[in-house]
Amino acid sequence: MSEKMGRDANENPYAGARSALPAAAPPRPRTVEAAFWLLVAAASLVIIRIPVAVAAANAEKYQSVIANLLGRENVVIWMAGEIFGNVLWGLITAVILAAIAVLSQAGHSWSRIVLIVVVIVTALNARAQFFASPVTVYETAWVTLASVLLSLAAAVLLFLKPSNNYCTSAGQDRRGSKLSQA
What we know:
The protein is mainly α. 79% of the residues lie in helices and 0% in strands. It has seven helices and no strands. It has helices spanning 3-11, 30-57, 60-70, 75-105, 110-131, 138-158, 161-181. α2 packs antiparallel against α6 (138-158), α4 packs antiparallel against α5 (110-131) and α5 (110-131) runs antiparallel to α6. 27% of the residues are buried.
């Protein structure tokens, strides 16, 4: 009997022998791996959208349309809003997508629900970019749409049976390791 086990047995008469090796993690299915890479690609597209949006906001064709719609004095305000919004929300979205990619690869099933919310919000954003903006900046709208489609494909993959089984077994393994550590 090892010293640690003997000490545990003296403190708790019901403590059994503890394994020195942690339980093996369940094998990761290809659907989870594919979803991970789709989410990485979607986050990359969101990052790529930032300089595209900055370049589009500085383009003369959009500035002249805004000048006609809102007046020449409001062009700078529109540009600042476009650049700030695309940089801020682009960075936030990219970080969230990257975090969801890592968490889903680790088998956290709640990350799939967060991904659905992110897909819905970004899809509404893409819709607004195409149809509800005073100036449709197609360069950013198409990149946003591509990111939404990649995220949606990842969400579908994460809800398939192999992914669902992986999340369930990974969650049980995490709960089991927490119980064995307690």
